[in-house]
Amino acid sequence: MSLELQLKKMENDEFYEDVGDDVINILIPRFPKRYLRNYENPLEFYDECQFQRRYRFSKDSTIHILFPLVETTLQTVNNRGLPIPPLLQLLTGLRFYATGSFQLVCGDLRGISQATVCRIIRKISIHFAELLGEYIKFPQNMEQQRANIALFFNIAGFPSVAGCVDGTHIPIASPGGNNAEVYRNRKGYFSLNVQVIAGPRREILDIVVRHPGSTHDSVIFDRSSARVRFELREIQGLLLGDNGYPHALTL
């Protein structure tokens, strides 16, 4: 293609503009405008869907529910050593929980050392554990229990349901020692078998985190305080479970 035809083609291209008055005009590329997002702020960098995939919480829940719970704990008394902002610390911990990745990888994403990530996760985990009893609990009175039963009924038309119970295996590294194989589950990897009772809003009403992976779901339930509370009728209604609970209570 001749130079004249090339220039003519470029003149007709919307990404170029004429900026000179010479015989052969000087043509400079004009690129479309682009919104540059701040990578240092994940709340701005990711849209809502991308954020939830990476942190398992919505932006609104992170800012208005989780952050106020840990803000005071994560704040530093001074600015020595360029401290990491409390919100970024929370997001670092949530990313670790959500992905189960190595601390080193989570740190590299934000330019934080592995040792710092370890301290952040430890601090956040301890604080959340201290709040366990305040947020994970069965309804405290009959009115709240009836409201839960009504919400369950609206889901599938099943009457008198107070909660749904199941176990989930949380993978762990081999603890070593003589009892290490106790933690190997039926699928062949090491884990903790965690029992969870969920409510109609998918909230956790009760959780048991102390049994090795080889422990059967029904054994965990038999040893739990939830079973006693259902037997004593402190909690009214039915507890639904799969066939892993052959002796589950139907009160």
> Sheet with the most strands?
4 strands, mixed
Biggest sheet: strands side by side, in what order? 5-4-3-6
Which parts are unreliable, with pLDDT below 50 for 5 consecutive residues or more?
Answer: 14-19, 34-38
Question: What is the number of helices?
Answer: 11
Could you characterize the architecture of this molecule?
This protein is an alpha+beta fold and about 250 residues long. It has two domains: about 40-130, no CATH class; about 135-240, no CATH class. It is about 45% helix and about 15% strand. It contains eleven helices and six strands. The chain has helices at about 5-10, 40-45, 50-55, 60-75, 85-100, 105-110, 115-130, 130-135, 140-155, 215-220, 225-230, and strands at about 15-20, 25-30, 160-170, 190-200, 205-210, 240. The longest helix has 17 residues, at about 115-130. The chain is globular and about 55 Å long. The N and C termini lie far apart (about 85 Å). Mean pLDDT is about 85; it is low at about 15-20 and about 35-40.
Task: Set out the fold topology.
Blueprint: H1 3-12, E1 16-18, E2 27-29, H2 42-45, H3 48-55, H4 59-74, H5 86-99, H6 103-110, H7 114-130, H8 132-135, H9 142-156, E3 161-171, E4 191-198, E5 204-212, H10 217-222, H11 225-231, E6 238-240
Parallel strand pairs: 3-6
Antiparallel strand pairs: 1-2, 3-4, 4-5
Helix pairs in contact: 4-5, 4-7, 5-7, 6-7
